[in-house]
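so my prof wants the structure for this chain in the tokens format not the other one, which i didnt know existed until like an hour ago. anyway here's the sequence
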Amino acid sequence: MSHSSSSSPHASSRDHAVAKPGVELILILGALTAFSPLTTDMYLPAFPAIATDLRVPSAAIQQTLALFFVGMAGGQLLYGPLSDRFGRIKPLLAGLLLYVVASIGCAIASTAASLTFWRLLQGLGGCSGIVMARAIVRDRFDATNAARVLSQLTLVMGIAPILAPFLGGQLLTLFGWRSIFWLLTAFGVACFFASAFRLKESWVGTRGAAHPITVVRTFGGVLSDWSFLIPALTVAFSQASMFTYIMASPNVFIQDYGVTPEHFGFFFGANALGLIGASQVNRALLKTHAPYSILHVSTLAAAAAGTLVAVMAWTGWGGLWGLAGSLFVLLTALGFVGANGTACALANQGKRAGSASALIGTMQFLFAALAGAAAAHMVLWSWVGTSLHAMGSVIALCALISCALHWTTVKSRTQVFKRWIGKITLFDNEFGS
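here's what i got, hopefully its the right format
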């Protein structure tokens, strides 16, 4: 299966783009892709305080995170077709405006129900930045250069999971939990003005139609394209592993391993550093290797690390530091999978890039929500035991499925498997007697 952008019917739309994007473009696009980690991670330390202030169980506050993911998943199906119809900038600005209004609503919410509602709208608005950033990269660059740019965006947005928990904790201590949402409001305003005045329209092709039937047909056409579907599913399952870790890690580290809340951020930040390191190594590898080839190794590494996480979770082998180390390897490997898988999925989509970008984002957040729900539900099963066991099981399953999906597209898979089987057979014949 070829991932060359030359086969794209709309490859010419990127001829106007510079080969090396400026720092300003990377910073703006990186900020747009950081809406999810910032809006998710910054208020995690405030869960108990919010529950106490609003006089509800902590489970009710956890639902606000679930509804945020629902908004992130569903909203991308809206922004994708709109961006193919009206260009990238106008839908982006509308989404950012909605995010700002929703953040203000969160800051002044007086009940858990109102906070949940505004969090849903936050997701609906914030996802516009993620969709448009990917679509703009696809508009401007071919598959290899797009993977390089996406790696740079990973570097920028990788800072968010490191700083967000610490910053949220400090704001909580100094000014209370509502200050977290006021800061997110300011972040949304800054992104709005940066996008309005410094980000140029990248879509120069024929505008697509916004009729619902046409939209459905466009989505159907994208999903029926195996050059999109398999890499997109590969990324979606890998991201499900990552989000399972994000949602379960507070309980695992704090309750199961006794890590203090103030030290939890160090473990969380270390894994974010792994993602940043992967993005920089990936940029160097892309000078000599195609994105599709890098997926060969990174999906295998993620599957191996995910399996190791499950083994450690169920056996206790390695203790805290063994688990933390295997999670670090997992998150680092996923840093390669995300950028390269996304670039491969979008490479041949041409005028459908906005819709394809939306589908990738929707699949990621939908699979993340399902994986998180599965891990939470497994804790209720008597034979599972703890959130540690559930986290390890779901992470391993998602990583293995991601790896299997990618390797079904390797053209030489039959020859590769035959060689492996041959080696095993020779090994057995020589040493099996």
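also thought this was worth mentioning. The chain has one domain: 11-428.
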